[in-house]
Amino acid sequence: MQVRGLAIGVPLGMLRRAVIAVVVLFIAIQFVPYGHDRSNPPVTQDAPWPSAEARRIAKGACYDCHSNETKWQWYDKAAPASWLVQRDIENGRDKLNFSEWNSGDNEDDLVEAVEDGSMPPRPYRLLHPGARLSAKEKAALIKALAELEAFHGHNQDRDD
Fold first, then answer.
1. Are 99 and 150 found together in one domain?
2. Cβ–Cβ under 8 Å, residues 100 and 68
3. What are the pLDDT digits (tens) for 29-67?
4. Residue 76 CA neighbour count, 13 Å, CB half
5. Which residues form the domain of 146?
6. Is residue 40 one of the residues assigned to a domain?
7. Cβ atoms within 10 Å, residue 62
8. Hey, how many other C-beta atoms are within 10 angstroms of the C-beta on 35?
9. The pLDDT value given to residue 12
10. Cα–Cα nearest to 26, from 94, 81, 64, 72
11. Residue 37 falls within a domain, yes or no?
């Protein structure tokens, strides 16, 4: 008589080997050296937020990926989640970094990204309650970002 597991017709021995293989793989991928650097570079110049409220909203909704002030979470320490988080932070800082506002490398479609709901991204909002903006907070953030874009563009025109 052969015992089958979980009512799916898979022999228990095969199921046990599969579980062991998954556990070994999970442990092995922890040694991949990507996603382990959870340091934050120094802030060279914070964005000139027009109000304390706007800065507070941006810190909750944007700063983990778009600044050098990332608040690392417990799940950021285990692969493969650490790989995804590291990639998102690297990409986010490359596109827009509120902590390096003086670099001049920030994109100009900030308002559009918040208006169309692509920022903050849905997976981030699911894990970070501070990124779930009310209509009032979203409007305040959009207004502040528009002011930052205008300020940034004005300063770039002066530099040219």
1. yes
2. yes
3. 888 877 667 789 999 999 999 999 999 999 999 999 999
4. 18
5. 52-159
6. no
7. 23
8. 21
9. 83
10. 81
11. no
